[in-house]
Write a structure and sequence with these properties.
heteropentamer; C: about 375 residues; mainly alpha; two-stranded antiparallel sheet; about 0% strand; D: alpha/beta; 7-stranded mixed beta sheet; 6-stranded mixed beta sheet; 12 helices; 16 strands; binds adenosine-5'-triphosphate; binds magnesium ion
Chain lengths: ~250, ~240, ~375, ~375, ~300
């Protein structure tokens, strides 16, 4: 479904992302782990078009999308969340999600219709909010949310766009322990049988192990391994470079 | 708590933009070891730390009393507090994106003390290697290292650390935990942390916040041992800790 | 009072477009009609002979007062249009005066030099100004932030230089170009018809307010609000930021051009200082004075600014000022001194602009209101 | 009430309303100040201290336009709306040009003030002027070169209408007399004049005519002096208000000035009367304009009462003794024919004196007759 | 040949003037993140204070040491006013960019009007040493000494600013403070002092530009600062916000361009070219000549 072919991003001489070949099958859940600074977020930026690769290609459903700007890729069904929450701070939580729904459904270039009148958008937005459990915060300004709540809103924004390929950048970071299971189940439900694929960066190994079909390990920008969880966890290099001795 | 507390918070109330976020929070921080501040997202942990260092936002106000020794903290400007030995590592790392790593560290030097670069670089060799890189282009984990490293350059009487392991690789989490453990041998730490494994390893005392009030204070081990208590306060069984 | 903080937080007006947040239930029935009431009141104002000494030179329906009000209304509309860019989309343009000037000079030149009838001149000008905005916007929007502000400023500066150069005697250079009224409808000419100009200005203001409010309450408006917060995010949601910004820029440019058409009729000529960057800066000041992104703030800001700008000259030469000791009367007789001081004071006394007054007064009103 | 109310003129003994719209603040405030001082002195002079024409008091209302035509238009409409039949003032050309049509549309008398633009002359039949126009400056400049035939003249002027008008006038007046005229133009915002000075020098003119107004004049003169332009040719320019004299610095004594007016240029009855009334006892560039405006107002009221058409008739062709001497309102286009002066500046530091070299009579400096436009 | 030399040197003189105005602006704009529309006022204060001192201050005059004293007084006055402005007006408004615009615009209007109310709108002759009115022959070109004085002053100011930013800790504090004031305080630094200092320096640079501009123009008038300001803004932006070196390059580019185009082209073309340069630079390199690439 999504594939990268020798994706490389250099700044000067340094390869931040180094010749990465990835293949994501429909319905697959691919976890990405790797030490801090391995280039995971950078890889996401290349895939979603926020950065242009110096070499290599990004393919979606076999078509080359390397030259497309971010919004074109999003329209093709590529959605993502950000590591540092990036929500529309001066809009309410509900408006945030409605905007995302509307962006997905089209009809954003309607200058003379009342936005609030679109019941379908409102309903879809509320559904997304419900799914991440933010319904009660609907009228709060997104900028004033606590950190964990912003993470949930990020996911709601992603859900609203109903993407076929989802890139999650550390969705669990900063989420309180209690809410982890709930979010895990939300993320789990993202793939299901709908044929959607997920690429998720996460440092919480238990979450990765629970969700991922395969795990890709990045190190110094390169793909160290990409295999089933068991194989990856048994890999000595991974143990040494990433996991260390568990607490 | 037998020994005199290093920091005591009494009836701390914070209002921001008309919202009553902290509603009479009182607790004490022991003069040694790690006191951990727990609670779900949005209960006001970060707000508490920020109120202590005097960083309540402009549209808010903090009332009550915060004392370090005989000194009252609330009315004093932040930079004075910090110079007086109160180290603060904020939640969002807040490294200066436009400055290089070295410049970030140099900025943290305090006048009249010798900065302990050896100590910091020994803990985070990455910072030494990336000295000339702009902090904004560091990865999330590297930024966290920088944020902690910045504070450790100086001698502190008390450290306030807000979710230091957020977004860190398991290996680094372990490292950070070790660092904090070692730091805590000489300086008391007030720590906000979601990772219960880290909490278990470090914490001696615990304060649990719930909806802007203190729900529980006491021995951290006791809290984590009693499944029922953990469940009711933190919403997780102590077994379901991710590591 | 120790109730647990509620999750339902009334949003501060300065940051959320009203259209997007639910208002108080009690107002819901009435609020939609308030603008209409205001419009009707403004429309019948010229029938009033009310005399407000000190506020206006003559009674409300005297030509001088109506002329002043007409100018104020046009600027209320201009400021509201500029707010579509600045307050609602977060684009800081320093070249908005260019499109206003295009309206003024375009109409003036087409009528005076080319001898076109008013409606043709106006139509051509508005189309031309809007196209100009679309073209220049398409280039300028390749940049963001301060760079964008400066590129727009540069374009406007070119306009100013061209007007000052007076190519072919078209613009009259620094002396300006008086409007040739011989071909205009008689109803728009002469002091006795000032009231018609007033109504024209009012219609313009109403149009701008309607457009701005419809647009910002529309799906597009929602995207514009999103752009203001995080452009990158909008892109990742699948929307092209550039397109939406260009639409806002063009629309605002078109509204400003239309304002220029009305203005030239009111003033009866074009003069080069409307091309200056200072005018854009004043627009910015008007919006900030009123409260960016709010429903009525920019309109009020524009009206108040122009009112002060015109009336302070009279204040400066009034006896009240002249009788003061020299160290007071000298500065106070400088209209710009008073205007500047008002801005500064406004920032400290009405942060968030005039529009925040209501929210700031609400607690006061609630305490004053008898409890039921 | 009605949607708009406009007061109408009063009866016979009612005071005559005169509106003065001029710059009290803004960049031209000092011109405005001279104008109003002159006007008051002139009113005093023409009404013999009574402030009345017959038994009707002249009631003067002043309004500040701050140099902004839009404000001037508002103020004018306000005054007209209140029944004022005579408007005077307009310190700047932009204001004069936009107020003139308003006067015509509403059929009130308009007497433009210091505004120098030629376009006011013949603007419409309701518009008169109480000051000189650019053309008269240029004619005066021409008097410096004697026989123009075969001479080379360069005009150095600002971009824009003021510069255009001067250039056109020089081409017509001096060029028409047989000189070849070229021009060097500079943006009004220029701060560095070396390129222009070099261009002028390279042209090697017999006469340089400079039309420059604004705060950069000091720098401009200094550069012309430093680059040797002033030493190499005859340089003519208009003499600005007294306060600007020191800004000529050393260049001042090397320039031939044409002058609209300066203290001591004339010794008429009116000048004496004006001197006595003006603060400091020193007349300046625009005192005569205000003075003449007042004289014209009094004449208009005397002969025309409340009837604007009669006022116009009374003014057209009227000859009177103003501060500068004999002035004549030309009937065809309402140009104000008046004496003009050649002057020299001497002194140093802040103390400069101007002395008249030659006086041109009103007829000698008369502009060509303009077509009356409306 | 000597025309080229003349144009180049006078162009550099003009560039030096632009740089002097722009340096303070750039500092305040780039480092303290304040779009200071009142910069022209600081300029005016410097010019008028120098003018006043030369006539009234004992020890000061229009020549020799007296002139130096007068300029020093002007610079001091500019710095002082800037500090006052920062303390009273700007300090409560950091990170509220838009309100800052309102305040600084208000200040420039009110300040210039105040100068005009006090000393009138007309230009006044500026006290200056006699040698500054003369010319020096360089390769056959008669170069005005005032222009040379400006060039020297600009080089000195450039060096001093670079030294300050590079070798003092303040440079670092200021740059960090622009990003996140709160966090700078949380490192134990009184960030407010640093920002006051930036304003003081900016004000002093502007005042120096005002005083030397007075020498250059030979006159002083209330609006003088404002007219220079637009080119100074252009210089700051072309150079890259906050980059003093960038401002220097940009000033030279703008000064020379204006001078040569005005000579070889038609009038007004120089200004158009400068504006065109601005647009082109920004479209190709939105961060300006010396600016760094913005980060996501
Ligand atoms: N614009 C940039 N300039 C220079 N270096 C950069 C830039 N962006 C990223 N880097 C470097 O690239 C590397 C990869 O960064 P990235 O953010 O992708 O890491 P990551 O794997 O997401 O780490 P983390 O888990 O800590 O978030 C880091 O070393 C970072 O410092
Ligand atoms: N500037 C602000 N304006 C309005 N509300 C705020 C502001 N800062 C925080 N809040 C609110 O205060 C509450 C507590 O926030 P705080 O950041 O202290 O929570 P926290 O316990 O640290 O949560 P987390 O675990 O997610 O970091 C939240 O509901 C948040 O929305
Ligand atoms: Mg990352
Ligand atoms: Mg927190």
């Amino acid at each position: 479904m999504l594939a990268t072919r020798g994706l490389t991003w250099r700044i000067g001489e340094v390869a931040i992302v180094d010749s990465v070949y990835l293949d994501l099958q429909p319905g697959e859940f691919l976890g990405v782990i790797g030490p801090n600074g391995a280039g995971k977020t950078s890889l996401f930026n290349l895939i979603t078009g926020l950065r242009r690769p110096t070499e290599g290609k990004v393919l979606l459903d076999g078509a080359d999308i390397t030259a497309l700007p971010p919004h074109r890729r999003a329209r093709l069904g590529l959605g993502r969340t950000f590591q540092a929450s990036s929500v529309f701070g001066s809009l309410t939580v509900r408006e945030n999600v409605r905007l995302a729904v509307q962006a997905h459904r089209g009809g954003s270039m309607k200058l003379w219709r009342r936005a609030a009148a679109d019941r379908e958008v409102a309903a879809a937005a509320d559904a997304a909010l419900d799914r991440v459990g933010l319904h009660h915060r609907g009228t709060a300004l997104a900028g004033t949310l606590a950190h964990g709540e912003k993470r949930k809103l990020e996911i709601a924004l992603l859900l609203a766009g109903e993407p076929r390929v989802m890139l999650l950048d550390e969705p669990m970071a900063g989420v309180s322990a209690e809410d982890v299971p709930e979010l895990v189940s939300v993320i789990k439900s993202l793939t299901g049988d709908s044929g959607r694929a997920v690429l998720m960066v996460e440092h919480h190994m238990d979450v990765i192990l629970e969700l991922a079909d395969r795990i890709a390990v990045m190190h110094h920008g390169a793909l160290l391994a990409c295999d089933t969880p068991d194989t990856v966890m048994a890999n000595a290099t991974v143990q040494e470079a990433y996991l260390g001795e568990a607490l | 708590m037998a020994a005199e507390p290093i920091l005591s918070v009494e009836d701390l109330s914070v209002r921001i933009a008309g919202l009553h976020i902290l509603q009479g929070v009182s607790f004490e921080v022991a003069p040694t070891g790690v006191t951990v501040l727990l609670g779900r997202n949005g209960v006001g942990k970060s707000t508490t730390l920020r109120a202590i260092v005097g960083l309540t936002p402009r549209n808010g106000e903090a009332r009550g009393a915060v004392r370090m020794g005989a000194q009252s903290l609330l009315a004093r400007p932040t930079h004075r507090l910090v110079r007086g030995g109160l180290g603060y590592v904020p939640e969002d790392r807040c490294v200066f994106a436009g400055l290089t790593v070295t410049e970030n560290l140099r900025l943290a030097e305090r006048r009249g003390t010798t900065p302990a670069y050896d100590k910091v670089f020994a803990l985070f060799p990455e910072l030494d290697r990336r000295g000339r890189q702009r902090a904004g282009s560091l990865s999330g984990g590297q930024q966290q290292m920088l944020a902690i490293g910045r504070v450790l350059l100086n001698d502190n009487r008390l450290l306030l650390v807000d979710e230091p392991t957020k977004g860190l690789a398991p290996k680094v989490v372990t490292e950070v935990a070790e660092v904090l453990e070692r730091v805590a041998e000489s300086v008391p730490v007030l720590l906000v942390e979601q990772n219960l494994a880290v909490v278990r390893r470090l914490a001696s005392d615990a304060v649990v916040l719930s909806a802007g009030r203190v729900a529980w204070t006491g021995d951290a081990r006791e809290l984590l041992l009693e499944t029922a208590l953990t469940k009711s306060l933190l919403g997780v069984g102590s077994g379901e800790v991710h590591a | 009072m120790t109730e647990v903080k509620s999750a339902e937080v009334p949003a501060p007006p300065a940051t959320v477009p009203d259209e997007l947040s639910p208002g108080h239930a009690r107002w819901h029935g009435l609020r939609p009609y308030l603008p209409l009431v205001a419009l009707v009141v403004a429309a019948v104002l010229p029938y009033s002979t009310l005399n407000l000494p000190g506020v206006f030179e003559g009674p409300l329906n005297s030509p001088g007062t109506l002329q002043l009000l007409a100018i104020c209304l046009v600027f209320g509309g201009l400021a509201a249009g500029y707010d579509l860019l600045f307050g609602r989309t977060g684009m800081l343009s320093f070249g908005h005066a260019l499109y206003f000037a295009a309206g003024v000079y375009g109409t003036d030149v087409l009528i005076t030099k080319a001898g076109l009838p008013l409606w043709q001149a106006a139509l051509l000008t508005v189309v031309g100004g809007t196209t100009l905005a679309a073209l220049l916007g398409a280039v300028a929007l390749r940049t963001v932030g301060i760079a964008f502000a400066m590129v727009t400023l540069a374009f406007a500066q070119v306009g100013a230089i061209l007007v000052a150069r007076d190519f072919g005697g078209l613009t009259g250079g620094e002396e300006g170009l008086p409007l040739d009224v011989s071909g205009l409808p008689a109803a728009l000419v002469g002091v006795t018809n000032t009231v018609n100009l007033y109504w024209l200005a009012l219609a313009y203001l109403a149009l701008v307010v309607l457009v701005v409010h419809r647009v910002s309450g529309s799906p597009t408006g929602r995207v514009l609000a999103g752009l203001r917060d995080d452009e990158r995010r909008i892109g990742v949601l699948g929307l092209d930021p550039y397109r939406f910004k260009l639409v806002a820029f063009t629309l605002a440019g078109g509204l400003a051009t239309a304002g220029g058409v009305v203005y030239v009729l009111i003033v009866g000529g074009a003069s080069p200082h409307i091309t200056s960057s200072e005018l854009t800066l004043s627009l910015l000041v008007m919006v900030v004075l009123g409260g960016p992104g709010t429903r009525w703030g920019p309109v009020l800001g524009g009206i108040l600014y122009m009112y002060l700008d015109h009336r302070l000259t009279a204040f400066g030469s009034s006896d009240a000022v002249n009788n003061l000791p020299a160290f007071l009367s000298h500065p106070l007789s400088q209209p710009l001194f008073v205007l500047g001081t008002v801005f500064i004071l406004a920032v400290y006394f009405f942060p968030g602009g005039l529009a925040s007054l209501r929210t700031r007064l609400t607690p006061l009103l609630t305490t004053l209101r008898p409890r039921r | 009430g009605s949607p708009q109310d406009t007061a109408s003129g009063g009866g016979d003994a009612a005071p005559v309303k005169v509106g003065l719209v001029y710059s009290q603040s803004g960049p031209l405030a000092s011109y405005g100040k001279q104008y109003i001082e002159g006007f008051k002195a002139g009113l005093d002079f023409a009404t013999k201290g009574t402030g009345k024409v017959g038994d009707r008091k002249i009631e003067v209302t002043e309004a500040d336009d701050a140099g902004d035509p839009a404000k001037a238009v508002s103020a004018t409409k306000d005054l007209i709306g209140k029944g004022t039949k005579i408007i005077a003032g307009s310190t700047s050309s932009g204001v004069a040009l936009q107020v003139a049509p308003i006067a015509a549309q509403n059929k009130v008398l308009f007497i433009s003030g210091p505004a120098a633009t030629d376009a006011v002359t013949g603007a419409n039949k309701y518009t008169f002027r109480s000051g000189r126009q650019s053309w008269q400056d240029v004619v005066t400049a021409k008097s410096f070169i004697g026989d123009a035939a075969g001479k080379k003249v360069v005009v150095f002027a600002q971009d824009g209408a003021f510069g255009d008008a001067n250039e056109a006038a020089v081409k017509a007046v001096i060029g028409g007399a047989g000189a070849t005229v070229s021009s060097v133009r500079a943006p009004a915002s220029a701060t560095e004049f070396t390129p222009f000075a070099s261009q002028i020098k390279a042209a090697k003119p017999d006469l340089l005519f400079v039309a420059w107004a604004g705060t950069t004049a000091g720098a401009m003169w200094q550069t012309l002096d430093q680059q040797g332009v002033l030493a190499s040719t005859t340089v003519v320019t208009g003499l600005d208000i007294r306060a600007s004299w020191p800004t000529f610095g050393a260049a001042g004594s090397k320039i031939s000035f044409l002058s609209h007016y300066f203290d001591g240029a004339s010794d008429t009855e009116a000048a004496k009367a004006a001197k006595a009334k003006v603060a400091g006892g020193t007349l300046d560039l625009f005192h005569p304009d205000g003075f003449a405006a007042a004289q014209m107002v009094v004449r208009a009221v005397q002969e025309g009462g409340d009837d604007v058409d009669k006022m116009i008739k009374a003014l057209e062709g009227w000859e009177f003794e103003g501060v500068k001497g004999t002035m004549k309102i030309r009937a065809e286009d309402h140009a104000l024919l008046q004496p003009m002066y050649q002057a020299k500046l001497s002194g140093s530091g802040t103390a400069f004196t101007a002395t008249a070299q030659k006086t041109l009579t009103g007829d000698e400096s008369a502009p060509p007759v303009a077509q009356m436009k409306g | 040949m000597n025309t080229v030399v003349l144009l180049a040197l006078t162009g550099l003189g003009l560039a030096a003037l632009y740089f002097l105005v722009a340096s303070g602006l750039s500092l305040v704009f780039g480092l303290a993140d304040v779009l200071n529309f009142a910069h022209g006022l600081f300029l005016g204060v410097g010019a008028y204070a120098t003018w006043w001192a030369a006539g009234n201050l004992p020890g000061a005059g229009s020549d020799g040491l007296g002139f130096v004293v007068a300029v020093a007084f002007g610079v001091l006055a500019g710095a002082l006013v800037a500090v006052l402005v920062e303390l009273v007006l700007i300090r409560p408004l950091y990170s509220r960019t838009i309100e800052q615009v309102l305040v600084t615009v208000g200040l420039s209007l009110a300040g210039v009007a105040l100068l005009q109310a006090t000393w009138g709108a007309d230009p006044r002759p500026f006290p200056r040493p006699d040698w500054s009115r003369d010319v020096t022959a360089v390769l056959g070109a008669q170069v005005p000494n005032a222009g040379l004085l400006l060039i020297v002053a600009a080089v000195v100011v450039l060096g001093a600013l670079l030294a300050f930013l590079r070798w003092t800790r303040y440079g670092l504090i200021i740059r960090a403070g622009v990003e996140n004031r709160e966090m700078v305080t949380a490192l134990g630094i009184d960030v407010r002092k640093a920002f006051t200092l930036v304003f003081a320096i900016g004000g002093a640079a502007a005042a120096l530009a005002g005083a030397l501009g007075g020498v250059y123009f030979g006159t002083v008038s209330p609006g003088q600062g404002g007219s220079l300001l637009i080119f100074a803004f252009i210089v700051v932006v072309i150079g890259g916000m906050g980059s003093v070196v960038g401002s220097a390059y940009a000033a030279v580019a703008v000064g020379l361009l204006q001078q040569f185009v005005n000579y070889y082209g038609t009038s007004g073309l120089g200004d158009l070219c400068v504006v065109g340069l601005l647009a082109v630079v920004l479209l190709l390199r939105p961060q300006g000549l010396a600016g760094k690439v913005a980060h996501a």
